[in-house]
Design a protein that fits this description.
By secondary structure, the protein is an alpha/beta fold. The protein contains 14 helices and 13 strands. A seven-stranded mixed β-sheet has the order 2-8-7-6-5-3-4, with helices on both faces. A four-stranded antiparallel β-sheet has the order 9-10-13-12, with helices on one face. It has a two-stranded parallel sheet with strand order 1-11.
């Protein structure tokens, strides 16, 4: 299985309800403000969406310009700052909207002829690169799953660009900006592209971890963001790319299908990206439940290690058993996790567990404590 979230094969299609820990989605569900206004989407079904997505881009730009307010520990100070200075100065020509972040990933990769992929990472990076027949170099994480910036810079010399996730999936490591600056400087001077997938960055709770503030200084930077993950809307399919690289923007814009974002996805951005209460509740949830999960997983003897994560998921190394052993055991209890043996750079000793709501987390921990080989 390339992706998590397949609740259908052994669940829905067999009349079973699956408790899903394989896909990393906010368990708070659909933001209330979107639900309250969803009928507006029904009204818009009789017409095509705006092919240029002008209102959608306006809402995204407004969200990005308030990003340091929404994801700051000192919101009042950030709000004052935002009033004085527009941080990013984004225009419509800096925003590309997609049918999920995956579409933007695929289109951004298609701009290149060769690429360096940081691994282990989201499998779609390699899938898209092979589909578009790119030459691929791999930069492997260090043994502690931190980024190997020296190796990345070396591998990048022979390719037109790179793709890296911030935080990385499946382990949740974030980019060290001070280390990454040298890579961006190199990309800028050599006309290479640095694609940074920030699909899970909101779960970190701190805007400082994002590379958005570097877009004013580096045309080589192409950031991809997702609405699916943090805002609990995987069925809507909405993601977007942010770049000030005119060539990359024009390339993608020229090959992208028209009307690729549906009316409900377009409407969602009007409400969910401004739902401050939902954002606050989500950050409180991830803070408390991540601590609970890490504390409990560290007590369970079948795990050798649980890795620190800035995302809403945890990479776990197993002790004296394989990912298939634990996967089948939990599957029999209608619980789905993510086996990681098909990640390049990992083996059958690793699984990834999403952080869910508290009752679901408790159920998983209980099952794991009861596991016997």
């Amino acid at each position: 299985m390339i992706h998590g979230g397949d609740i259908y094969t052994d669940g829905v299609l067999k009349g079973k309800k699956i408790l899903d820990f394989s896909s990393n989605i906010n368990p708070l569900g659909v933001p209330p403000k979107f639900i309250k206004n969803i009928n507006k989407g029904i009204d818009s079904l009789k017409v095509y969406p705006d092919v240029k997505y002008r209102r959608l881009k306006d809402n995204i730009i407004d969200y990005l310009n308030n990003y340091s307010y929404y994801f700051s520990n000192n919101q009042e100070e950030s709000k004052d700052f935002i009033k004085k200075f527009n941080e990013y100065n984004f225009s419509h020509e800096n925003i590309l909207v997609g049918n999920g972040a995956t579409e933007i990933i695929d289109l951004a990769i298609s701009y290149l002829n060769s690429i360096t992929i940081v691994v282990p990472s989201f499998l779609e990076y390699e899938q898209s690169s092979r589909k578009h027949e790119l030459n691929i170099n791999y930069s492997y994480l260090n043994n502690d799953f931190s980024f190997n910036y020296d190796d990345l810079l070396e591998k990048l010399e022979n390719t037109e660009g790179l793709i890296i996730a911030n935080p990385n999936n499946p382990n949740g490591e974030i980019i060290n900006k001070k280390e990454f600056i040298s890579i961006l400087n190199y990309c800028e001077s050599e006309n290479k592209i640095a694609i940074v997938d920030e699909a899970f960055i909101e779960f970190s709770g701190d805007y400082n971890y994002s590379l958005l503030n570097l877009t004013n200084h580096y045309d080589c930077l192409f950031i991809i963001k997702s609405v699916t993950k943090f805002y609990g809307l995987p069925g809507v399919r909405l993601g977007f790319g942010v770049t000030k690289n005119k060539k990359a923007y024009n390339h993608i814009n020229s090959i992208q299908n028209p009307w690729n974002v549906n009316s409900f996805a377009e409407l969602s951005a009007e409400y969910i990206l401004k739902d401050e209460e939902y954002i606050k509740n989500s950050l409180n949830w991830i803070k408390s439940e991540k601590k609970y999960m890490v504390d409990e997983l560290n007590k369970i003897t079948i795990f050798d290690k649980t890795y620190h994560s800035y995302g809403n998921y945890l990479l776990c190394k197993l002790k004296n058993l394989t990912d298939r052993d634990i996967y089948l055991y939990l599957k029999n209890k209608n619980i789905l996790i993510r086996s990681c043996s098909n990640y390049r750079g990992l083996n059958n000793q690793f699984i990834r567990i999403a952080i869910n709501d508290h009752e679901s987390n408790k159920k998983l921990i209980k099952c794991l404590n009861n596991f016997k080989l």
